[in-house]
């Protein structure tokens, strides 16, 4: 299964683990492949450097650079697809969609209400992390296709 994590989901996986962290663990052991693009990685690096994340990252015993570098090494970098113009009002959301289309993702994993409201984009389902985990635990032919 090929997944694109939006930036907030990636931050959650890296810092607070939870269900997004379980998806990252699945990527580490090869059960899923995470997809990203240079623009999404740049956004993640910038977000991780925000002051509000310094203390949680420090409590993990990590440096921001190490946390980011580990994630960057885990993902398959793809070229973002040309969406032909804006799809949503938020250019950051369009970057997630472009990554998913460019990487032929099975799912976009997000907690963003605007992305989730789309339901799917060009046949790629947009789901919460817990739904992605549910799908990971069943055979592919059982997945709800849009």
| Poorly predicted segments | none
Helix fraction bin: 40-55%
Number of helices: 8
Major sheet attributes = 6 strands, mixed
Termini separation = 16 Å
Element-by-element helix/strand order: EHHEHHHEHEHEEH
Task: Write structural notes for this entry.
- This protein has 146 residues and is of the alpha/beta class.
- 53% of the residues lie in helices and 13% in strands.
- The protein contains eight helices and six strands; from the N terminus they run E-H-H-E-H-H-H-E-H-E-H-E-E-H.
- A six-stranded mixed β-sheet has the order 3-2-1-4-6-5, with helices on both faces.
- The model has no long low-confidence stretch (mean pLDDT 93).
């Amino acid at each position: 299964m090929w997944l694109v994590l939006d930036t907030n989901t990636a931050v959650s996986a890296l810092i607070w683990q939870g269900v997004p962290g379980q998806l990252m663990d699945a990527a580490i052991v090869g059960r899923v492949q995470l997809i990203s693009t240079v623009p999404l990685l740049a956004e993640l690096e910038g977000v991780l450097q925000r002051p509000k994340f310094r203390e949680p990252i420090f409590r993990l015993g990590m440096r921001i650079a190490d946390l980011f570098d580990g994630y960057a090494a885990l993902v398959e970098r793809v070229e973002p697809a040309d969406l032909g113009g804006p799809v949503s009002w938020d250019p950051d959301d369009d970057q997630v969609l472009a990554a998913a289309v460019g990487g032929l993702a099975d799912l976009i994993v997000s907690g963003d209400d605007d992305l989730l409201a789309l339901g799917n984009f060009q046949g790629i389902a947009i789901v919460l992390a817990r739904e992605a985990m549910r799908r990971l635990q069943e055979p592919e032919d059982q997945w709800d296709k849009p």
